[in-house]
Automatic annotation (TrEMBL):
<comment type="similarity">
    <text>Belongs to the glucose-1-phosphate thymidylyltransferase family.</text>
</comment>
<feature type="domain" description="Nucleotidyl transferase">
    <location>
        <begin position="5"/>
        <end position="240"/>
    </location>
</feature>
<keyword id="KW-0479">Metal-binding</keyword>
<dbReference type="InterPro" id="IPR029044">
    <property type="entry name" value="Nucleotide-diphossugar_trans"/>
</dbReference>
<dbReference type="InterPro" id="IPR005907">
    <property type="entry name" value="G1P_thy_trans_s"/>
</dbReference>
<protein>
    <recommendedName>
        <fullName>Glucose-1-phosphate thymidylyltransferase</fullName>
        <ecNumber>2.7.7.24</ecNumber>
    </recommendedName>
</protein>
<dbReference type="GO" id="GO:0046872">
    <property type="term" value="F:metal ion binding"/>
</dbReference>
<keyword id="KW-0548">Nucleotidyltransferase</keyword>
<dbReference type="InterPro" id="IPR005835">
    <property type="entry name" value="NTP_transferase_dom"/>
</dbReference>
<dbReference type="GO" id="GO:0008879">
    <property type="term" value="F:glucose-1-phosphate thymidylyltransferase activity"/>
</dbReference>
<keyword id="KW-0460">Magnesium</keyword>
<dbReference type="Pfam" id="PF00483">
    <property type="entry name" value="NTP_transferase"/>
</dbReference>
<comment type="function">
    <text>Catalyzes the formation of dTDP-glucose, from dTTP and glucose 1-phosphate, as well as its pyrophosphorolysis.</text>
</comment>
<keyword id="KW-0808">Transferase</keyword>
């Protein structure tokens, strides 16, 4: 099976977060002690994905390159792709088509945060599906803000409805999509919606129409946060801080995952830790080193 590649969509203008995002990309804002983009990067790492395309605006790309480099220090390979204008989530598959080169993909939105003990297993199950697609449903109190799963009485999925006025369920589709190699071709067939965007819901519907889309429900033991508003940005930071302070474990730490997976050596981890040793993050990395 062709190795799956990753996509992080980190474009857009972040208008809902103005004035914070007038001078910096939303995905570079801090979520407690790390830049926001660390969290989607580590989701892909937990799925075993090492080749990742990061889609940004032309203006913000130099900042992402300065922060992330080429990915080698985490055992990864980053490719940077420009999004000239934010024309919908499905556009990402057109922009990344050359990067994918016929490979299946896992795309995660740059402002989404996932947490849960069973997350690696859920990701592995989605990755194991060689054809079709897998998305994750999560129960929310305000489904009208999201793409919502419409379930038939027998529990099968009938449709995914984008930001419905009358949501057919409380299950939102999260910003994490495992799709097979046909995604760019399917995205090419999507027509702009009334708001002028290539909607991810329309792309997913093409899989659903063929019976090729699995919707996995993330239950009570998971957290899914998006950080598109001032309040949700603060909530996410408080969530991460509470977990880390309580457990003494880092959330969204690429150095730790890379070391655990054998993608970097102890010497490389030590070098990263010493570079950051003036704060708790660097001291945490030092504690990961074998005695």
């Amino acid at each position: 099976m062709t190795t799956r590649k990753g996509i992080i969509l980190a474009g857009g203008t972040g208008t809902r977060l103005h004035p914070i995002t007038l001078g910096v990309s939303k995905q570079l804002l801090p979520i407690y002690d790390k830049p926001m983009i660390y969290y989607p990067v580590t989701v892909l790492m937990l799925a075993g994905i090492r080749e990742i395309a990061i889609i940004t605006t032309p203006e913000d790309q130099p900042q992402f390159r300065r922060l992330l480099g080429d990915g080698a220090r985490w055992g990864l390979s980053f490719t940077f792709i420009v999004q000239p204008s934010p024309d919908g989530l499905a556009q990402a598959y057109l922009l990344a088509e050359d990067f994918l080169a016929g490979a299946p993909s896992a795309m995660v939105l740059g402002d989404n945060i996932f947490f849960g003990h069973g997350l690696p297993d859920a990701l592995a199950a989605a990755d194991a599906r060689a054809t079709g697609g897998t998305v994750f449903g999560y129960r929310v109190a305000d489904p009208e803000r999201y793409g919502v799963v419409d379930f038939a009485p027998d529990g099968t999925v009938r449709a995914i409805v984008e930001k419905p006025e009358r949501p057919p369920s409380h299950f939102a589709v999260t910003g994490l999509y495992f799709l097979d190699a046909s995604a760019p071709d399917r995205a090419r067939a999507v027509r702009p919606s009334a708001r002028g965007e290539l909607e991810i819901a329309d792309l997913l519907q093409s899989y659903l129409d063929e019976g090729a889309l699995a919707v996995e429900r993330l239950g009570r033991g998971y957290a899914w946060l998006d950080t598109g508003t001032h309040g949700s940005l603060l909530d996410a930071g408080n969530f991460v801080r509470t977990l880390q302070d309580r457990q003494g474990l880092q959330m969204g730490c690429p150095e730790e995952i890379a070391f655990q997976k054998g993608w970097i050596t102890a010497e490389s981890l030590r070098a990263e830790a010493l570079r950051l040793q003036k704060n708790d993050y660097g001291r945490y990395l030092l504690r990961l080193l074998p005695a």
